[in-house]
């Protein structure tokens, strides 16, 4: 467990993942019935971009740093940027929300936020960062156990983010297993798996595993910041979204060209298709 997301907070992958998450939450909120938010690998919840770990890599400068003062932001990015501005009221970008903080701020009063973190120190800090919000529950344990431990939920609607550190070679396989388990326990779960785009060989196997999960429908969307054959590089990242709410595909078709243009480094691009069509 050597991974620390603080080194990577606010980078291009975070912007893509978190902006998509805000749209998932907004679209789920179109229905009156509440939903639960579940996060399998929650991290700290929020990050200091001026802290030692973030400044050591400076990855956020090529991510949220490119959007912070942009004047051409799509309207669909407003929820995401509003959270950032609320966290940085003096206009200087310092604090960045992880997925738990975004979910806590954007879900409605009657909705629960169920967070899990395995690393003891990160879990302690996550509890500290989330304290005072009675809707939030922090669990300390193995993230892969979340589907069987927390699903089905009483609300009968759920958004689950599966976002492991990908330190181990089997984690793509475990993502597919977790999705299959989530769908088996509550078929209507909206589950989003974030994954890195590095090794195309591993990705081909991953796509096949995802297609065999039994999800009713599964949308794949990917953002590229380098050519796919760039060695030893995070060339982009993807989200595989089971049961995406109506309207998400259309919104992503508007957002992704903008993100590819803004966040591309040596070469920006994107793709979206259905791994499992309805």
Give the name of the CATH architecture: 3-Layer(aba) Sandwich
Q: How many helices does DSSP assign?
A: 10
Radius of gyration: 17 Å
Please outline the major beta sheet. Answer: 8 strands, mixed
The tally of beta strands, per DSSP, is 10
Query: How confident overall, as mean pLDDT?
Result: 95
Structural class: alpha/beta
Short description:
It contains ten helices and ten strands. It has 278 residues and is α/β, with parallel strands linked by helices. The chain has a single domain, classed as Vaccinia Virus protein VP39 (Rossmann fold), CATH 3.40.50.
Description:
This protein is of the alpha/beta class and 278 residues long. It has 10 helices and 10 strands. The strands form 2 sheets. It has an 8-stranded mixed sheet, with helices on both faces. Helix 8 links the parallel strand 6 and strand 7. The chain has one domain: 3-Layer(aba) Sandwich (Rossmann fold). It is globular and about 40 Å long. The model has no long low-confidence stretch (mean pLDDT 95). The longest helix is centred in the first third of the chain and has 17 residues.
């Amino acid at each position: 467990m050597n991974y620390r997301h603080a080194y990577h907070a606010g980078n291009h992958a975070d912007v893509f993942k978190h902006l998509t998450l805000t749209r998932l939450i907004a679209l789920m909120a179109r229905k009156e019935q509440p939903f639960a938010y579940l996060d399998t690998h929650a991290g700290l919840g929020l990050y200091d971009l001026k802290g030692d770990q973030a400044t050591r890599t400076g990855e956020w400068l090529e991510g949220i740093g490119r959007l912070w003062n942009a004047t051409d932001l799509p309207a669909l990015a407003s929820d995401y940027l509003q959270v950032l501005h609320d966290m940085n009221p003096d206009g200087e970008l310092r604090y960045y929300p992880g997925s738990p903080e975004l979910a806590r701020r954007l879900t409605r009063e009657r909705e629960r936020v169920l967070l899990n973190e395995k690393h003891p120190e990160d879990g302690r800090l996550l509890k500290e960062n989330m304290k005072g919000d009675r809707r939030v529950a922090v669990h300390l344990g193995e993230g892969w156990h979340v589907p069987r431990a927390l699903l089905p939920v009483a609300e009968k609607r759920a958004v689950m983010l599966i976002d492991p550190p990908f330190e181990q070679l089997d984690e793509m396989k475990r993502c597919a297993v977790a999705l299959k388990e989530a769908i088996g326990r509550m078929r209507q779960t909206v589950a989003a798996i974030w994954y890195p785009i590095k090794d195309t060989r591993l990705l081909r196997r991953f796509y096949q595993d995802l297609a065999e999960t039994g999800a009713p429908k599964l949308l794949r969307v990917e953002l590229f910041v380098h050519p796919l054959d760039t060695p030893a590089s995070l060339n982009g990242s993807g989200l595989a979204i089971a049961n995406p709410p109506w309207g998400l595909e259309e919104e992503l078709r508007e957002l992704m060209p903008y993100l590819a243009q803004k966040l591309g480094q040596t070469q920006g691009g994107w793709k979206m298709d259905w791994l499992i069509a309805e």
